[in-house]
Amino acid sequence: MAPPPHEPLPWAQQGSAGGQQQMEGPQREPRRQHPPPTPHTGAKDAVPLSPRAAGIRLSEHRDEPGCSSPSPEVGRAEPGSRCPAAFKANTQRSQSSAVLPRCKCGIAAGSIPARWLQAPCRMAWHSLLLLPFLLAAASGNTVPIFNMTIVYVAEDLYIGETAFTLIAYDPDGDPITYSISGTDSFYFNVDSQTGVVTLKNLLDRETQAKLTIIVTVSDGINAAVSKRLTIIVEDRNDNAPVFQNLPYETSVLENTTVGSIIYNVFANDSDTGTAARVSYSIQEVIPDAAKNRWLFYILFNGSVVLNSSLDYTINTFLQLKILAQDGGGLLRNETVIQSSTTYLSITVIDVPNLNPRFLNEPYSGSVPEGCPVGTTVLTVTAMDRDTGVNDMIYYSFTNASVPFAINDTTGTITVSQLLDREQLLNEEVLLEVMARESNLDIYGNVAQASTVVTVLVTDINDNKPHFYQCLLSTCDFIYTQSNFTGSIVEHSPSNMPVSNLNIVARDPDKGINGTFELYLQGESASAFTVSPTRIVGTGEVQILVQDPSAVDYEITHVMVVQLIANDTGNPTDCCSTATVTIDLIDTNDHFPEFPQSTYSLSVMENSPDGTVVATNITAYDPDSGAGGQITYQLLQEYIQQIFMVNATSGAVLVRNGSFLDREKRSMYSTNLQAKDGGNKTSTTMLEITVLDENDNEPIIIGSYFIYVEEGQNVSTQIKAFDNDEEDTPNSELGFKIVPGLYSNNFTINQTSGEMYSIEPLDREAVDSEDGQLVVTVEVYDHGVPQLSTMVNVTITVADVNDNMPVFLQQSYEFSVFESSDGSFVGNVMATDADRTEINSRISFQLERNTGSSNFLISSTRLGLGNYSGRLSLDPDVTVDYDTMQDKFFSLVVLAENTAANDAGNIANVSVLVNVLDVNDEPPTIPSSSQKSVSVSENGTQLGLVLTVVAFDPDTNHSLVFEELSVACYKGGSSAGEVCWDWFVLLPNGSLLADSLDIDYELCDEVRLTIRVEDLYTEKGDRYSKNETLEIWITDINDNAPIFFPVSETFVIVPEISPVDLQVATVKATDADSGLAGTIVFSIISVVLVQEDGDKRPFDNLFKVVTSADQDIYTGSIQVASNLDSSLKGQYQVTVEARDSAAPQHATQTTLNIFTVDQSYRIHLQFTTTVDEVQSNLESIRIALTSATKAGVYVSAIRTYEDSRTTAVKAKSVIEAYFVYSNGTALDVNQLTLLINSNPTALANLMNLGLVVIGPGEVTESSKEKEMIGVIAGLAAFLVLFILIMILALVLTTRSYKRKLSAMKALKTATTLSPAVVQGEGIPGTNKYNAERANPMLNLSLDSSHDLGFHEETSSLASINSLDENMVNSPKEDNFKAKRGNPHPTDSTEDKVLAAALNMEEPSKMAYINTAFNTTDL
After folding, report:
1. Using CA atoms, how far apart are residues 1092 and 1356, in angstroms rounded to an integer?
2. Whose CA is closest to 1090, among 34, 41, 35?
3. Is the peptide bond before 1323 cis (omega within 30 degrees of 0)?
4. From start to end of 1120-1171, where are the E strands?
5. One-letter-per-residue 3-state SS of 740-809
6. In this structure, what DSSP letter does residue 726 have?
């Protein structure tokens, strides 16, 4: 991990260029760049500085008061400048320290030889000449800082869209490049310059919700920094619900009860939240009939419910198209609802509820007559329409006495007796076949069906022709005939048929089988012929004259022939014979003759048509045959309209009796003619007398209207006559009163017709308004039949006022609604029997009593003597049912005849008026029905929760409850609409829990706003006030604890971590309440992951203390036992959160606690005492924190003890660790850089006594003041000169030393080996002009030997010293300068070289020169 980013430091920016330069010379190593240490590595690994890589830099404090900014020229300071002392640092074996001297000199030493530093006054100008190179060597460059640990990316990004941006920081301001790697980098591309990460391959949260990539950032200078970056793929609604356990198939009995659940479907949505909530609906029913659409419905849980009855005959198979859709969610920044469909296949299982059905109807077959018994006719087949049941079918005939039989199982119809087609009533035999199932249907009835089978009995030639005497149209063919008689007039022409012959020949066979021939035989056969000669089936037969001369009456009166019918297709029984006798008819040669010349006849008038006047008036004609047959006719045409005669018998009859009226004509005369067949005629006279009949009604003379006042008698006489014959009963009259309404009030004389009243008349007894009464008198004769005439006698009776009013009822009872001001109450009815308007007029009024003032009454005429009294409420008076003690009024209504002469003509009647309640009061919901109710969550309490009761004071009401709104609350705050479908309020007030989604964690209080409506309200408000019904959701333990994300990094410094120290915290919450939401933390395991990857478990190393703040529980991870400060790595602490109610739920999380080992402990030396340091500790912490932005962990404050003498005497030391929140710790070098880059913090720390930062001992610098004085005395105008001189001196010295070393090597090498080729060296160089002339080439030397060729080395001790490097005082510089040359030659160098060449052990250990090569020789 890297330290937190901070603003780029000025010195870091200026020193970046120098940090990239290489140190000059073959023995200088390039300056190595290194990243800041991570929690997993120590300072030794994190700061791999070579002895030459760490140097002293010029401190720049631009904000220090009184200290001028340095000159842009490197190493140059403005005259008169003063600055706080620069850090001096010398690094050896990854340890470094720094001293904060007084401000004496602006030069910082880095890789300067120690012997130069021992003579600062003599070598000051040399140091100034080396200043540019020192600045380049001392310039530092830090690695980029990358702190991102987690990002969130939506899964619905398109390829090429920006996913996120990598952000790193380089304190030096160097350009940063980015790259990513790892398996999951497959999904992303990164812009190496901007850090913008785009999508390369599509994401899918459901496949992989968490990705990890390795992010590498580099500034191109230091080693690249790599870090794992966690990518959380955020969910989007990109998944439609997926139906599980497909395919969906089920079978259902067709008589399944409506409302039954027939199947359950389930669809899963891989998304989260509302996007995972699936609802169902039926989109389509196949087949898509109108009735099928509502055959099923589906519940919210996927249960498919039968909604109406199934019918196997309509649907044997159904498919439901079921839609599953989620609750919607974001996709491409839009709210999208995903859905999917599937089909549920439903097979309807048949049950026996249908009658069988015959197949292939209609049935017809044929069988020849005379076939053997058992011959198969046909087979009928019936099937059980309940195809899924398929019961056995049994067959039978319902016909009685049929010549066929049927197999009861196969349905095969066979012949059961011999068939004779001609004996059957019809050649088509109709058989009614019944098919019956073997089992009863589901209703317990016999399942059966019937059909009609037509069997045609075909003909065979088994009959011969026969003769019958009948007309063809009426012949019944029952009796055959063999003798026939006919006649014919003698000498009739050829082909004249013999008359009176009704011969029918018939062969009952059919078609060709019924074809036969006819011919004649016998003595007279030649005189006649037969027609036709061939008949098919049935036909009429005629005998025709063939030889007219042979037909002679004078020869014979009778001729006989034999008629033969021959069936040529039946030779065994072919023929039938009939004898035909023909009588010959004579011709006409005589006139008819009547016995009398005149006949006297009589007939009753009005005789009906067809009445016989004379039975037979006949004439005689001796001729035979037609000549002797006489016909009769009346000659006068007008007579023919009245009478007619039978042409054969001579009987005279009435043709039209309506003309026979004695009163108009009493006598008729006519001639009757007789004519024979030869048109010979004769006549006789007929005289017909019309006899009288009683056919005339009596005739009334005059009209009868009589006027009389009531109370008087009346009399009158009825006069009439009759037109029938006088002095006969037909014209004798009688009188009587016809029974009627008033017939009993009168009497009449039957002979004279005098009528009078029995008693005085009463006008009120007359029903008519005009007072008229009608008495009907019947006048009749004595003839047969008796005739009569009616006459009305109208008597008008004048009215007299002699009656008082009368009510139609003894009492009246009415009802009226309250508050119906002026409304109609009822009618009282009264009558006055008087029959005139003035005498029967009635007026009504109310008798004064209690309550009568509330009513009004008015009179209305309904008719004569009929009046209605309209009773109504007074419009100015209001009747309130609720305030009345008695709910009725008792009234007395008076009826008065206004035409009466006295006041006594008044009638009264009692009237009871009941007051009815009007539904005018609103209903109310009593407080007792508004009590709170509790319901358990998760659908554990479905069904009836509460029955709300309402009250309505009205007597007639119908109350219906309504749910107006639903409000959801959680913890007293609104919870949105999450609970809107949890509860249902039925119209009867039943409150039902109707959802499995009731969730206490979403909503703990539901407030239903309800009201009740009175459907019968007639007036006023029909609704009650809105009331609130509170439903409390009770919690059950259905949620596991949830840990809050841990965003901070936990670091522990074992050395300063006492028992009970809090080193980390976790937070969790449980959505449940009470004990179910009470969390207790515990530590499950502690594992130390060491730097090498090994894992080491520990017990009882940490403990956890649980605390609570409302619903958030905090687990404080504390040290339970002393920690080992030498261990490196990180502790993985697994913490469990468990709730406290059954069933218990637990969740675990793992914390990483990074350890900071002793290698990061830093010593801060102060010139103040321990007590002063402790009193200023807080200020010291603040200054250190402001400079480093890191946490300061003080492990100890002690007195500093060191026997060495130094310029600055430290009195106390603080041992501390500097750790960032991400686990990164600072080493000495990093701390030095950060403090040096913050002038304000540096000044504060120096004021508090800080002098040295480092892990080692502090050497006292007694010459500090002199050094600072020398440096302060340098003049600005000498700077340039000094630099030039230093450069020249350095170049001269290096050239001299190389030559000297080469000569020494040459001198010594001459004694090594004769194999070495001698050659001259090239003057002024370390090169040779001959091959193998270099004496050191390929020489095997011990690498541990120090040849002493280090140009800056003054002594071995100075290089390997562990002492802190200090800036010496001027006095020390003068003292050391007296020792000699800038580069003195130690006398031991030759000894060392000789010992090396002779392979001898050196006397001292030397610095290992790994960069040595032959070119230096």
Report:
1. 37
2. 41
3. no
4. 1130-1139, 1146-1155, 1162-1166
5. CCCHHHEEECCCCCEEEECCCCCHHHCCCCCCEEEEEEEEEECCCCCCEEEEEEEEEEECCCCCCCEECC
6. T
User: Torsion angle, CA of 1394/1397/1402/1404, rounded to 10 degrees?
Assistant: 80
Question: Are the CB atoms for 12 and 141 separated by under 8 Å?
Answer: yes
Cα–Cα distance measured from residue 646 to residue 1338, given in angstroms and rounded to the nearest whole number: 183
pLDDT tens figures, 642-701: 999 998 888 999 999 888 888 888 888 899 999 988 888 899 999 999 888 888 889 999
Please name which of 1037, 1076, 1071, 1033 lies closest in space to residue 941, comparing C-alpha atoms: 1033
Q: Strand 704-709 vs strand 788-798: parallel, antiparallel, or unpaired? A: parallel
- Is the pLDDT score of 371 beyond 70? yes
SS (H, E, C) 548-562: HHHCCCCCCCEEEEE
Angstrom distance (rounded) from CA 112 to CA 92: 14
Structure tokens at 649: 């018998």
Kind and range of the H or E run holding 1301: helix 1279-1309
Cis peptide before 1045 (omega within 30 of 0): no
Q: Are 453 and 420 in contact (CB under 8 A)?
A: no
Pick from 997, 984, 1069, 1068: which is nearest to 1033 by CA? 997
On the 0-12 / 13-18 / 19+ scale of CB atoms within 10 A, 960 is: middle
**Alpha carbon distance 1264, 511 (integer Å):** 161
**pLDDT tens digits, 765-779:** 887 778 888 999 999
DSSP 1172: H
1337 pLDDT above the threshold of 60 = no
443 contacts 480 by C-beta, under 8 angstroms: no
pLDDT in the model for residue 196:
96
Beta bridge partners, 263, equal: 304
Instruction: Determine how many CB atoms are found less than 10 A away from the CB of residue 1344.
Output: 11
Phi first, then psi: give them for residue 1411, nearest 5 degrees: -95, 10
Would you call 1273 helix, strand, or coil by DSSP?
helix
Burial zone of 816 (CB within 10 Å; 0-12 exposed, 13-18 middle, 19+ buried): buried
DSSP of 585-615? EPPP----B-S-SEEEEEEETTPPTT-EEES
What's the token pair of residue 287?
A: 């087949």
Quick check: 270 and 239 in contact, CB under 8 A?
yes
Pairing of strands 1027-1034, 933-936: parallel
- C-alpha gyration radius of the chain: 73
Please report the sign of the dihedral spanned by the C-alpha atoms of residue 898, residue 899, residue 902, residue 906: negative
- The number of CA neighbours under 13 Å toward the Cβ of 1336 is 24
Q: Residue 1241: enclosing H or E segment and its boundaries?
A: helix 1239-1247
Could you give the CA distance from residue 1262 to residue 104 in angstroms, rounded to a whole number?
Answer: 13
Tell me if the pTM is above 0.70: no
* Paired tokens of 445: 């009835």
Give the number of other Cβ atoms within 10 Å of residue 213's Cβ: 23
Question: Is residue 876 a contact partner of residue 821, using CB atoms and an 8 Å limit?
Answer: yes
What is the 8-class DSSP label of residue 500? T
- List, in order, residues 6 or more apart from 993 with CB less than 8 Å away: 935, 939, 941, 942, 943, 945, 982, 983
Closest to 354 in 3D by CA, of 257, 253, 447, 449: 447
Any idea what DSSP says for residue 650? -
**Over the stretch 180-199, which tens digit does the pLDDT of each residue have?**
999 999 999 999 999 999 99
Place of tokens 């039968």: 306
Q: What are the strands, taking DSSP E only, across 605-732?
A: 612-614, 631-634, 643-645, 652-654, 667-675, 681-691, 699-701, 704-709, 715-717, 719-721
